[in-house]
Write a structure and sequence with these properties.
The structure is a single chain. The protein is mostly beta strands. It is built from no helices and 10 strands. Strands 2-10-9-4-5-6 form a 6-stranded mixed β-sheet, with no helix packed on it. Strand 5 and strand 6 form a beta hairpin. The radius of gyration is 13 Å and the shape is globular.
């Protein structure tokens, strides 16, 4: 299992910004892609963005395009999600998860605690 720990959530006004961090184990972190997911109350968990192990490939859900930026620094085993122009509909618990670069499937089946993001209008 590749265990990752999320942090950086908070409560912000619409239009504001937050940067989430996903910290992994340096011994294994650089071997995997990482995805940021979110789950709002009463909704399914959904992919927000993902990045390959070397950082050369990125993908964004339509809801995140133009507002969110995913990046990674393997030297500190961290993936970031910079979220700008936040909207109330971005309110959710945000999770990161390791992914296999070959097919973007989940590497392991356990999830962390996540970090809560709340956006008020």
């Amino acid at each position: 299992q590749v265990q990752l720990v999320e942090s950086g959530g908070g409560t912000v006004q619409a239009g504001g910004s937050l940067r989430l961090s996903c910290l992994g184990d340096k011994r294994t972190f650089a071997s995997y892609g990482v995805g940021w997911f979110r789950q709002a109350p009463g909704k399914e968990r959904e992919l927000v963005a993902r990045i390959s192990w070397a950082g050369g490939r990125e993908f964004y859900a339509e809801s995140a395009q133009g507002r969110f930026v995913i990046s990674r620094d393997n030297s500190v085993a961290t993936v970031y999600l910079q979220m700008n122009s936040l909207r109330p509909e971005d309110t959710a618990v945000y999770y990161c998860h390791a992914l296999y670069d070959e097919d973007w499937s989940l590497a392991g089946d356990s999830w962390g605690q996540g970090t809560q993001v709340t956006v008020f209008s």
